[in-house]
């Protein structure tokens, strides 16, 4: 096990006193696809980036908004990014990697941070459909771009090499092209929620985490509460899958709160929160083009996820994506992008085959098994 994997596991133990390595792998749940009808801004802006463009026209703050968005720009591959404007102008389908990192949360000081939230947002204006595909943070995969061979939890890619390594690693895992990303650190989530005056959520079960108590039913949360609500994982019966859904709910509520009249009075505070805590390789003009040309894709929004199999890698609890599941997700995203389906053939499928040969049963996901990483 690499030192980065050990660090990742130790950093993410529950504050309630759980010993490192004691967490159990998540049992799989039935794959489900959920249709929603939120506005397209919820998908594209992950924390309000394009929404700010729309709001700016309404309150005559276009230049202030442009300045704030310009500060979020961080290129990772200029050659690939140069082609994005042509794609957007042609209104071709596009996928954007959405990352929620733990940078700045709970006193963490990593420059990039582990990506606790990984979502591939695929927007197709021609079919008027958007698909959000979540990748569980503990999914095992090859970390693409490291000096030495590294096969571990996919969320460590952003910690190891920033958005570029995260883009390349998720792209390799799912066999889909990924050029653009939007990333927000969890510490910034607290500031953004406070800037919009708090968010409203519907709590599905009572729990406590990080000093906050949540009761079943509708609640109005401040920034600290929203951060705790979005972070809790082990108390949730659905584990990381449940956390992903709560994080999507927070994002949706941020958008609704940001559009309120009361928020406009704190518009500059909101802009400052965005510019300090969001990073993306989408330019302001590209965001405007997406906002104008892709809004029809909001008519149908589907949520999906890579269904993992709970296992142990050494003492670490991980999720193993079966080759058939990777193929299903890859086919779905590639179809939405207008690309031909391709057989997924990567390091994950190789490791799956080697483990299957050694007795790992991918057809019996309810039994917790040990997953071995074989040298390249």
Characterization of this structure:
Helix content is 41%, strand content 20%. It has 376 residues and is an alpha+beta fold. The protein has a single domain (3-370), classed as Aminopeptidase, CATH 3.40.630.190. A seven-stranded mixed sheet has the order 1-13-4-3-2-7-12. A three-stranded mixed sheet has the order 15-14-16, with no helix packed on it. A hairpin with an 8-residue loop joins strand 5 (140-142) and strand 6. Helix 8 runs antiparallel to helix 12. The longest helix has 20 residues, at 239-258. The radius of gyration is 20 Å and the shape is globular.
- CATH-defined fold name: Aminopeptidase
User: What would you give as the CATH superfamily?
Assistant: LCP protein
Helical percentage: 40-55%
CATH class: Alpha Beta
Features:
7-stranded mixed sheet; 3-stranded mixed sheet; 376 residues; disordered N terminus; alpha+beta; 16 strands; 15 helices
Can you describe this structure in just a few lines?
By secondary structure, the protein is of the alpha+beta class.
Tell me the layout of helices and strands.
Blueprint: H1 3-11, E1 34-36, H2 40-45, H3 49-59, H4 62-72, H5 78-81, H6 84-89, E2 94-101, E3 115-124, E4 129-134, E5 140-142, E6 151-153, H7 156-174, E7 180-185, H8 186-195, E8 199-203, E9 207-209, E10 212-214, E11 217-221, H9 223-231, H10 239-258, H11 261-264, H12 267-277, E12 278-280, H13 284-293, E13 300-305, E14 309-313, E15 316-320, H14 323-336, H15 347-357, E16 369-370
Parallel strand pairs: 2-7, 4-13, 14-16
Antiparallel strand pairs: 1-13, 2-3, 3-4, 5-6, 7-12, 8-11, 9-10, 14-15
């Amino acid at each position: 096990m690499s030192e980065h994997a050990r660090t990742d596991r130790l950093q993410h133990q529950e504050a309630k006193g759980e010993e490192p390595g004691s967490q159990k792998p998540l049992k799989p749940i039935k794959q489900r696809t959920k249709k929603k009808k939120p506005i397209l801004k919820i998908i594209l802006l992950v924390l309000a980036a394009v929404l700010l463009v729309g709001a700016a026209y309404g309150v005559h703050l276009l230049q202030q908004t442009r300045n704030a968005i310009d500060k979020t720009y961080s290129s990772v591959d200029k050659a690939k990014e140069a082609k994005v404007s042509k794609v957007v102008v042609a209104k071709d389908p596009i996928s954007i990697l959405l990352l929620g990192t733990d940078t700045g949360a709970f006193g963490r000081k990593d420059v990039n941070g582990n990506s606790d939230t990984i979502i591939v947002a695929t927007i197709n204006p021609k079919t008027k459909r958007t698909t959000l595909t979540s990748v569980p943070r503990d999914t095992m995969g090859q970390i693409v771009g490291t000096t030495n061979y590294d096969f571990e939890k996919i969320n460590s890619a952003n910690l190891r090499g920033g958005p570029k390594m995260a883009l390349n690693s998720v792209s390799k895992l799912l066999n889909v092209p990924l050029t653009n990303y939007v990333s927000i650190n969890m510490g910034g989530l607290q500031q953004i929620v406070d800037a919009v005056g708090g968010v409203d959520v519907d709590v599905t079960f009572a729990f406590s985490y990080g000093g906050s108590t949540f009761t079943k039913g509708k609640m109005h949360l401040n920034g600290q509460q929203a951060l705790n609500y979005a972070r809790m994982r082990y108390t949730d019966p659905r584990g990381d899958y449940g956390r992903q859904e709560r994080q999507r709910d927070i994002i949706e509520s941020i958008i609704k709160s940001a559009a309120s009249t009361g928020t406009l009075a704190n518009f500059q505070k909101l802009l400052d929160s965005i510019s300090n805590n969001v990073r993306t390789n989408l330019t302001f003009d590209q965001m405007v083009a997406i906002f104008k040309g892709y809004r029809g894709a909001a008519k149908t929004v589907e949520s999906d996820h890579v269904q993992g199999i709970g296992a142990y890698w050494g003492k670490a609890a991980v999720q193993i994506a079966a080759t058939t599941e990777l193929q299903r997700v890859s086919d779905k995203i590639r179809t939405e992008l207008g690309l031909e389906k391709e057989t997924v053939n990567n390091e994950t499928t190789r490791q799956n085959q080697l483990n299957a040969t050694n007795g790992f049963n991918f057809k019996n996901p309810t039994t917790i098994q040990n997953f071995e990483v074989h040298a390249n």
